[in-house]
Design goal:
Number of helices: 14
Order of helices and strands: HHHEHHEHHHEHHEHHEEHEH
Strand content: 5-15%
CATH architecture: 3-Layer(aba) Sandwich
Mean pLDDT: 88
Family: Belongs to the 'GDSL' lipolytic enzyme family.
Largest sheet: 5 strands, mixed
Protein name: GDSL esterase/lipase 7
Bound molecules: 2-acetamido-2-deoxy-beta-D-glucopyranose
Helix content: 40-55%
Low-confidence stretches: 1-52
Keywords: Hydrolase, Lipid degradation, Lipid metabolism, Signal
GO molecular function, one term: hydrolase activity, acting on ester bonds
Shape: globular
CATH superfamily: SGNH hydrolase
Radius of gyration: 20 Å
CATH class: Alpha Beta
Length: 404
Amino acid sequence: MALNLVACLISLVISSVFPQARALHHTQGFFGFTPNLVDFISSTSSPSSSTSIPPTPSFPETPPLVPAFFVIGDSSVDCGTNNFLVTLARADRLPYGRDFDTHRPTGRFCNGRIPVDYLALRLGLPFVPSYLGQSGRVEDMLQGVNYASAGAGIIFSSGSELGQHVSLSQQIQQFTDTYQQFILSMGEHGAADLISNSVVYISIGINDYIHFYLRNVSNVQNLFLPWSFNQFLASIVRLEIKNLYTMNVRKVVVMGLAPIGCAPHYLSEYRSENGECIEVINDIVREFNFVMRYMIEQLGKELRDSNIIFCDVFEGSMDIIKNHRRYGFNVTADACCGLGKYRGWLMCISPEMACSNASNHIWWDQFHPTDAVNAILAENVWNGLHSNMCYPMNMEDMVVPKQK
Ligand SMILES: *[C@@H]1O[C@H](CO)[C@@H](O)[C@H](O)[C@H]1NC(C)=O
Ligand SMILES: *[C@@H]1O[C@H](CO)[C@@H](O)[C@H](O)[C@H]1NC(C)=O
Ligand SMILES: *[C@@H]1O[C@H](CO)[C@@H](O)[C@H](O)[C@H]1NC(C)=O
């Protein structure tokens, strides 16, 4: 852990050369970020290459299946939010992004695309811009916004030791801002129509374990058994989905948590012998997913005209790990980028720490899967192509109602 911290500090020193984030820090403090301010700061200091919105690869000229795609979450789906924050959790340097469409770092915690990139293309939409990375003009938000922030959790303080992040409730607040701007520019009916036909994708919760529960912050392990901690997290997510519902959100995809007990970080920390997953951690994740799936099922019945699905990424990921050869992976335990046992001891901070070809690896870094895994998981969310992950239906059936 101590050496991890050293790497973190080195990383912070490197990130301190980005003037935008520092200016933002001094002028705005922790919470009041607005895209316009970011825009202003970007235009008054030299923009870093990582802050531009990447072009979307060409896709068939068919009309989009939904008007817009909104993303809420953590590093599993952050596409650039943290580039504007003072935090250790930033993916704005190579080798991050080296296999992305632009071969440039963007803030995505991956060598290439994250699941919401693949899903945006499935919906017939361009890659969704990050809330802090776009101009703040309504035209730039009409096809969706990504509010996700690496290190963020369901609980406000989860991940705070990494620096700034935008927590779940703050992201909902930002969504509220977007919604109000839609109302101002297209009227209440127009905004309600757009939002109710769009999809909101939520992928958050793992940091409440990585950075809160498993670190026993505030003596939490003595006060809460995993089961009641799970219930607590689920109750917060339930409340936030109800908040979204009051803003006319009707289609929601809630992602479960990944098998983080198989991530190189924990294989290294818990001294896995032959790459076997750390079951005490995976058990907690399994339980969380169980609680969330039940909560979502109940909530779906309660909220009229809603269409809320839960996708158990644990199941889909374990299928990939178990049947890795069938999927074309021959490295299951070691990260592509990092240092130490399983390359999970020290975080990925330089291109020299990375393997030459990530496509046969399951894990890109200490905590995050490779582009190849993200593509498979996105296909599962879309139509269960490789294994069924979503309940009570897949995303495709949610947005393209079955023909009678
Ligand atoms: C959690 O922390 C408290 C005090 O900080 C300590 O008494 C307790 O033993 C810790 N629990 C575990 C399981 O480590
Ligand atoms: C995985 O496969 C690649 C290419 O097929 C090969 O170069 C590499 O040595 C293999 N790695 C392991 C750990 O088997
Ligand atoms: C990585 O390996 C895969 C197959 O093992 C191959 O198709 C791909 O071209 C390689 N990528 C690079 C950048 O070498």
